[in-house]
Protein: 3-hydroxyisobutyryl-CoA hydrolase, mitochondrial
Amino acid sequence: MLPVRRLGSSLISPSVRATTTSAIPQTDELLVSALKSKRLITLNRPKALNALNLPMVRSFYPQLKEWNDDKRISMVIVKGSGEKAFCAGGDVLSVTKSAKANDGSTVHKDFFYEEYQLNHLIGTLSKPYVALIDGITMGGGCGLSVNGRFRVATERTMLAMPETALGLFPDVGGSYFLSRLRSNLGMFLALTGYRLQGADVYHAGLATHIINSSDLAELEKALLDLPSEQVNDSRVDDLLKKFRPSDVKTFSLANELQLIEKLFDGKTLEEILKKLADNNSEWAQKQLKTLSKMASGLA
Ligand SMILES: *[C@@H]1O[C@H](CO)[C@@H](O)[C@H](O)[C@H]1NC(C)=O
Ligand SMILES: *[C@@H]1O[C@H](CO)[C@@H](O)[C@H](O)[C@H]1NC(C)=O
Ligand SMILES: *[C@@H]1O[C@H](CO)[C@@H](O)[C@H](O)[C@H]1NC(C)=O
Structure:
Protein backbone atom coordinates (compact mmCIF):
# COMPACT_ATOMS: atom_id res chain seq x y z
CA MET A 1 0.00 0.00 0.00
CA LEU A 2 1.43 3.32 -1.00
CA PRO A 3 1.26 6.12 1.52
CA VAL A 4 -1.77 8.32 1.58
CA ARG A 5 -1.27 11.33 -0.62
CA ARG A 6 -2.98 14.58 -1.24
CA LEU A 7 -5.74 14.43 -3.72
CA GLY A 8 -5.20 15.56 -7.26
CA SER A 9 -2.02 15.81 -9.24
CA SER A 10 -0.08 13.16 -7.33
CA LEU A 11 -2.19 10.11 -8.11
CA ILE A 12 0.29 7.34 -8.07
CA SER A 13 -0.08 5.23 -11.18
CA PRO A 14 1.37 7.10 -14.18
CA SER A 15 -1.12 5.47 -16.55
CA VAL A 16 -3.95 6.85 -14.48
CA ARG A 17 -2.30 10.20 -14.00
CA ALA A 18 -2.30 10.68 -17.75
CA THR A 19 -6.08 10.87 -17.75
CA THR A 20 -6.48 12.70 -14.44
CA THR A 21 -7.80 16.16 -14.93
CA SER A 22 -5.62 18.64 -13.12
CA ALA A 23 -8.53 20.83 -12.10
CA ILE A 24 -9.69 18.65 -9.20
CA PRO A 25 -9.39 20.81 -6.07
CA GLN A 26 -6.98 19.55 -3.43
CA THR A 27 -7.58 19.38 0.27
CA ASP A 28 -5.82 17.73 3.20
CA GLU A 29 -9.25 16.95 4.59
CA LEU A 30 -9.86 14.32 1.94
CA LEU A 31 -6.98 11.95 1.29
CA VAL A 32 -6.73 9.65 -1.67
CA SER A 33 -4.42 6.71 -2.10
CA ALA A 34 -4.15 4.29 -4.96
CA LEU A 35 -3.04 0.71 -5.30
CA LYS A 36 -3.19 -0.58 -8.83
CA SER A 37 -6.86 -0.49 -9.80
CA LYS A 38 -8.18 0.32 -6.30
CA ARG A 39 -8.82 3.74 -4.83
CA LEU A 40 -9.08 4.51 -1.13
CA ILE A 41 -10.60 7.73 0.16
CA THR A 42 -9.99 8.79 3.76
CA LEU A 43 -12.16 11.48 5.34
CA ASN A 44 -9.53 13.33 7.31
CA ARG A 45 -10.96 15.75 9.86
CA PRO A 46 -10.62 13.56 12.96
CA LYS A 47 -10.97 16.50 15.38
CA ALA A 48 -14.35 17.31 13.80
CA LEU A 49 -15.29 13.59 13.74
CA ASN A 50 -14.66 13.72 9.98
CA ALA A 51 -17.68 15.96 9.42
CA LEU A 52 -18.18 16.59 5.72
CA ASN A 53 -17.65 20.14 4.47
CA LEU A 54 -17.97 21.76 1.05
CA PRO A 55 -14.26 21.54 0.10
CA MET A 56 -14.37 17.80 0.82
CA VAL A 57 -17.46 17.35 -1.35
CA ARG A 58 -15.77 19.36 -4.10
CA SER A 59 -12.77 17.02 -4.01
CA PHE A 60 -14.74 13.81 -3.61
CA TYR A 61 -17.29 14.26 -6.39
CA PRO A 62 -15.08 14.94 -9.45
CA GLN A 63 -12.64 12.26 -8.37
CA LEU A 64 -15.39 9.65 -7.98
CA LYS A 65 -16.97 10.71 -11.27
CA GLU A 66 -13.69 10.17 -13.05
CA TRP A 67 -13.22 6.71 -11.50
CA ASN A 68 -16.79 5.81 -12.35
CA ASP A 69 -16.04 6.37 -16.04
CA ASP A 70 -12.54 4.82 -15.98
CA LYS A 71 -12.61 1.09 -16.75
CA ARG A 72 -9.17 0.64 -15.20
CA ILE A 73 -10.51 1.48 -11.75
CA SER A 74 -12.03 -1.64 -10.15
CA MET A 75 -13.17 -0.58 -6.68
CA VAL A 76 -13.51 2.37 -4.32
CA ILE A 77 -13.09 2.11 -0.54
CA VAL A 78 -13.95 4.94 1.85
CA LYS A 79 -13.11 5.24 5.53
CA GLY A 80 -12.68 7.82 8.27
CA SER A 81 -9.47 8.92 9.95
CA GLY A 82 -9.04 8.01 13.64
CA GLU A 83 -11.00 5.56 15.76
CA LYS A 84 -13.97 7.65 16.81
CA ALA A 85 -15.89 8.30 13.65
CA PHE A 86 -16.48 7.41 10.05
CA CYS A 87 -18.27 10.73 9.53
CA ALA A 88 -20.45 12.51 12.08
CA GLY A 89 -22.46 14.33 9.42
CA GLY A 90 -22.48 17.47 7.33
CA ASP A 91 -20.41 20.31 8.71
CA VAL A 92 -23.30 22.11 10.39
CA LEU A 93 -20.97 24.84 11.73
CA SER A 94 -19.90 26.11 8.31
CA VAL A 95 -23.43 25.86 6.95
CA THR A 96 -24.96 27.76 9.89
CA LYS A 97 -22.23 30.40 9.79
CA SER A 98 -22.83 30.99 6.10
CA ALA A 99 -26.60 31.15 6.50
CA LYS A 100 -26.28 33.75 9.27
CA ALA A 101 -23.49 35.78 7.72
CA ASN A 102 -25.61 37.79 5.30
CA ASP A 103 -22.41 38.58 3.39
CA GLY A 104 -23.31 36.93 0.12
CA SER A 105 -21.86 33.58 1.17
CA THR A 106 -23.69 30.73 -0.55
CA VAL A 107 -21.99 27.83 1.28
CA HIS A 108 -25.28 26.88 2.97
CA LYS A 109 -26.99 26.48 -0.41
CA ASP A 110 -24.09 25.02 -2.36
CA PHE A 111 -23.28 22.46 0.31
CA PHE A 112 -26.59 20.57 0.13
CA TYR A 113 -26.88 20.86 -3.65
CA GLU A 114 -23.43 19.39 -4.20
CA GLU A 115 -23.59 16.90 -1.33
CA TYR A 116 -26.77 15.34 -2.75
CA GLN A 117 -25.13 14.99 -6.16
CA LEU A 118 -22.28 13.10 -4.50
CA ASN A 119 -24.81 10.88 -2.66
CA HIS A 120 -26.50 10.11 -5.97
CA LEU A 121 -23.23 9.22 -7.67
CA ILE A 122 -22.37 6.88 -4.78
CA GLY A 123 -25.80 5.29 -5.16
CA THR A 124 -25.38 4.70 -8.89
CA LEU A 125 -21.66 3.91 -9.04
CA SER A 126 -20.71 1.40 -11.73
CA LYS A 127 -18.24 -0.51 -9.54
CA PRO A 128 -18.03 -1.86 -6.00
CA TYR A 129 -17.97 0.87 -3.34
CA VAL A 130 -17.08 -0.26 0.17
CA ALA A 131 -17.66 2.08 3.14
CA LEU A 132 -15.91 1.07 6.36
CA ILE A 133 -18.32 2.64 8.87
CA ASP A 134 -16.32 2.20 12.07
CA GLY A 135 -17.42 4.63 14.82
CA ILE A 136 -19.91 7.49 14.55
CA THR A 137 -21.85 7.53 11.28
CA MET A 138 -24.58 10.14 11.24
CA GLY A 139 -26.56 12.13 8.69
CA GLY A 140 -24.13 13.11 5.94
CA GLY A 141 -21.99 10.12 6.98
CA CYS A 142 -24.91 7.84 6.11
CA GLY A 143 -25.15 9.65 2.78
CA LEU A 144 -21.55 8.67 2.01
CA SER A 145 -22.08 5.04 3.03
CA VAL A 146 -25.64 3.71 3.09
CA ASN A 147 -26.23 4.83 -0.51
CA GLY A 148 -23.28 2.68 -1.61
CA ARG A 149 -23.29 -1.03 -2.30
CA PHE A 150 -21.26 -2.29 0.69
CA ARG A 151 -21.31 -0.91 4.24
CA VAL A 152 -19.14 -2.65 6.80
CA ALA A 153 -20.02 -1.98 10.44
CA THR A 154 -17.99 -2.89 13.53
CA GLU A 155 -18.93 -3.19 17.21
CA ARG A 156 -17.91 0.49 17.49
CA THR A 157 -20.35 1.76 14.86
CA MET A 158 -23.00 4.19 16.09
CA LEU A 159 -25.36 5.11 13.30
CA ALA A 160 -28.24 7.56 13.28
CA MET A 161 -30.22 9.94 11.11
CA PRO A 162 -30.75 12.71 13.69
CA GLU A 163 -32.04 15.44 11.39
CA THR A 164 -35.45 15.91 13.02
CA ALA A 165 -33.66 17.20 16.13
CA LEU A 166 -32.35 20.06 13.98
CA GLY A 167 -35.68 20.82 12.35
CA LEU A 168 -34.51 19.20 9.14
CA PHE A 169 -35.81 16.12 7.33
CA PRO A 170 -33.71 12.94 7.01
CA ASP A 171 -31.90 13.97 3.84
CA VAL A 172 -28.85 12.58 1.97
CA GLY A 173 -31.05 9.84 0.42
CA GLY A 174 -32.70 8.92 3.72
CA SER A 175 -36.21 8.92 2.28
CA TYR A 176 -34.97 6.24 -0.14
CA PHE A 177 -32.93 3.98 2.10
CA LEU A 178 -34.99 4.34 5.29
CA SER A 179 -38.28 3.64 3.56
CA ARG A 180 -36.89 0.32 2.32
CA LEU A 181 -36.06 -1.11 5.75
CA ARG A 182 -38.27 -3.84 7.20
CA SER A 183 -40.92 -3.45 9.90
CA ASN A 184 -41.22 0.34 9.55
CA LEU A 185 -37.79 0.64 11.13
CA GLY A 186 -37.00 3.49 8.75
CA MET A 187 -39.97 5.57 9.88
CA PHE A 188 -38.96 4.93 13.51
CA LEU A 189 -35.31 5.87 12.89
CA ALA A 190 -36.24 8.92 10.81
CA LEU A 191 -38.67 10.40 13.31
CA THR A 192 -36.90 9.60 16.58
CA GLY A 193 -33.25 9.84 15.47
CA TYR A 194 -32.66 6.61 17.42
CA ARG A 195 -28.98 5.62 17.59
CA LEU A 196 -28.20 2.11 16.38
CA GLN A 197 -25.11 0.55 17.95
CA GLY A 198 -22.74 -2.10 16.61
CA ALA A 199 -24.45 -5.24 15.35
CA ASP A 200 -27.84 -3.43 15.39
CA VAL A 201 -26.67 -1.41 12.37
CA TYR A 202 -26.29 -4.69 10.53
CA HIS A 203 -29.53 -6.25 11.78
CA ALA A 204 -31.47 -3.14 10.77
CA GLY A 205 -30.12 -3.53 7.23
CA LEU A 206 -28.16 -0.27 7.13
CA ALA A 207 -24.85 -2.15 7.12
CA THR A 208 -24.48 -5.03 4.67
CA HIS A 209 -21.68 -6.69 6.66
CA ILE A 210 -20.21 -6.72 10.14
CA ILE A 211 -16.64 -7.30 11.29
CA ASN A 212 -14.57 -6.93 14.44
CA SER A 213 -12.83 -3.52 14.48
CA SER A 214 -9.56 -5.31 15.29
CA ASP A 215 -9.78 -6.85 11.78
CA LEU A 216 -10.24 -3.55 9.90
CA ALA A 217 -6.62 -3.21 8.79
CA GLU A 218 -6.54 -6.79 7.59
CA LEU A 219 -9.80 -6.38 5.70
CA GLU A 220 -8.55 -3.23 4.02
CA LYS A 221 -5.42 -5.06 2.91
CA ALA A 222 -7.42 -8.05 1.65
CA LEU A 223 -9.66 -5.76 -0.42
CA LEU A 224 -6.68 -3.93 -1.88
CA ASP A 225 -4.98 -7.25 -2.62
CA LEU A 226 -7.89 -8.64 -4.66
CA PRO A 227 -6.64 -9.24 -8.20
CA SER A 228 -8.17 -6.48 -10.33
CA GLU A 229 -9.74 -8.87 -12.80
CA GLN A 230 -11.51 -10.67 -9.93
CA VAL A 231 -13.22 -7.62 -8.50
CA ASN A 232 -16.98 -7.85 -8.80
CA ASP A 233 -19.88 -7.63 -6.37
CA SER A 234 -20.02 -11.31 -5.48
CA ARG A 235 -16.25 -11.55 -4.97
CA VAL A 236 -16.28 -8.53 -2.63
CA ASP A 237 -19.34 -9.90 -0.83
CA ASP A 238 -17.58 -13.25 -0.28
CA LEU A 239 -14.50 -11.55 1.09
CA LEU A 240 -16.48 -9.35 3.50
CA LYS A 241 -18.44 -12.37 4.73
CA LYS A 242 -15.21 -14.16 5.59
CA PHE A 243 -14.52 -11.46 8.20
CA ARG A 244 -17.83 -11.94 9.99
CA PRO A 245 -17.14 -12.56 13.72
CA SER A 246 -18.26 -15.94 15.04
CA ASP A 247 -20.48 -14.38 17.70
CA VAL A 248 -22.46 -11.44 16.36
CA LYS A 249 -24.72 -9.94 19.03
CA THR A 250 -28.45 -10.34 18.45
CA PHE A 251 -30.70 -7.40 17.50
CA SER A 252 -31.30 -5.37 20.65
CA LEU A 253 -34.60 -4.08 19.17
CA ALA A 254 -35.90 -7.61 18.56
CA ASN A 255 -38.50 -7.29 21.31
CA GLU A 256 -39.72 -3.92 20.02
CA LEU A 257 -39.90 -4.83 16.34
CA GLN A 258 -43.57 -5.75 16.48
CA LEU A 259 -44.43 -2.49 18.24
CA ILE A 260 -42.37 -0.50 15.72
CA GLU A 261 -44.08 -2.23 12.83
CA LYS A 262 -47.57 -1.56 14.19
CA LEU A 263 -47.19 1.87 15.74
CA PHE A 264 -44.90 3.55 13.19
CA ASP A 265 -47.27 2.58 10.42
CA GLY A 266 -49.19 5.63 9.27
CA LYS A 267 -49.74 7.79 6.22
CA THR A 268 -49.33 10.92 8.31
CA LEU A 269 -47.35 11.89 11.37
CA GLU A 270 -50.64 12.56 13.19
CA GLU A 271 -51.72 8.97 12.59
CA ILE A 272 -48.47 7.67 14.10
CA LEU A 273 -48.74 10.03 17.08
CA LYS A 274 -52.28 8.81 17.71
CA LYS A 275 -51.22 5.16 17.56
CA LEU A 276 -48.43 5.84 20.03
CA ALA A 277 -50.74 7.80 22.32
CA ASP A 278 -53.38 5.06 22.26
CA ASN A 279 -50.84 2.40 23.16
CA ASN A 280 -50.26 2.38 26.87
CA SER A 281 -46.97 0.52 26.78
CA GLU A 282 -44.05 2.23 28.45
CA TRP A 283 -42.10 1.98 25.21
CA ALA A 284 -44.75 3.80 23.15
CA GLN A 285 -45.02 6.59 25.72
CA LYS A 286 -41.26 7.02 25.65
CA GLN A 287 -41.30 7.41 21.86
CA LEU A 288 -44.07 9.96 22.15
CA LYS A 289 -41.91 12.00 24.55
CA THR A 290 -38.95 11.81 22.18
CA LEU A 291 -41.11 12.98 19.28
CA SER A 292 -42.50 15.96 21.14
CA LYS A 293 -38.97 16.95 22.13
CA MET A 294 -37.95 16.77 18.46
CA ALA A 295 -40.96 18.82 17.41
CA SER A 296 -40.31 21.52 20.00
CA GLY A 297 -36.64 21.86 19.15
CA LEU A 298 -35.64 20.81 22.67
CA ALA A 299 -33.89 17.58 21.65
C1 LIG B 1 -12.76 -8.83 18.56
O1 LIG B 1 -11.43 -9.24 18.56
C2 LIG B 1 -10.82 -9.15 19.83
C3 LIG B 1 -9.34 -9.44 19.67
O2 LIG B 1 -9.08 -10.29 18.62
C4 LIG B 1 -11.53 -10.13 20.76
O3 LIG B 1 -10.96 -10.06 22.06
C5 LIG B 1 -13.00 -9.76 20.83
O4 LIG B 1 -13.70 -10.71 21.60
C6 LIG B 1 -13.60 -9.71 19.46
N1 LIG B 1 -14.95 -9.17 19.55
C7 LIG B 1 -15.96 -9.69 18.88
C8 LIG B 1 -17.27 -8.98 19.06
O5 LIG B 1 -15.86 -10.66 18.15
C1 LIG C 1 -16.91 -12.60 -10.13
O1 LIG C 1 -15.55 -12.90 -10.22
C2 LIG C 1 -15.22 -14.25 -9.90
C3 LIG C 1 -13.72 -14.38 -10.00
O2 LIG C 1 -13.13 -13.55 -9.11
C4 LIG C 1 -15.92 -15.20 -10.85
O3 LIG C 1 -15.65 -16.53 -10.47
C5 LIG C 1 -17.42 -14.96 -10.82
O4 LIG C 1 -18.06 -15.72 -11.80
C6 LIG C 1 -17.73 -13.47 -11.04
N1 LIG C 1 -19.14 -13.28 -10.79
C7 LIG C 1 -19.91 -12.56 -11.59
C8 LIG C 1 -21.35 -12.46 -11.18
O5 LIG C 1 -19.50 -12.00 -12.57
C1 LIG D 1 -49.51 -1.80 22.09
O1 LIG D 1 -49.48 -2.22 20.73
C2 LIG D 1 -49.10 -3.57 20.56
C3 LIG D 1 -48.97 -3.84 19.08
O2 LIG D 1 -50.12 -3.53 18.39
C4 LIG D 1 -50.13 -4.48 21.21
O3 LIG D 1 -49.78 -5.83 21.07
C5 LIG D 1 -50.22 -4.11 22.68
O4 LIG D 1 -51.26 -4.86 23.30
C6 LIG D 1 -50.47 -2.64 22.87
N1 LIG D 1 -50.35 -2.34 24.30
C7 LIG D 1 -51.14 -1.51 24.96
C8 LIG D 1 -50.92 -1.43 26.44
O5 LIG D 1 -51.99 -0.86 24.40
About this structure: The pocket of 2-acetamido-2-deoxy-beta-D-glucopyranose (ligand 1) is lined by residues 155, 212, 214, 245, 247 (CB under 6 Å). The radius of gyration is 20 Å. Residues 30-254 form a domain with the 2-enoyl-CoA Hydratase; Chain A, domain 1 fold (CATH 3.90.226.10).
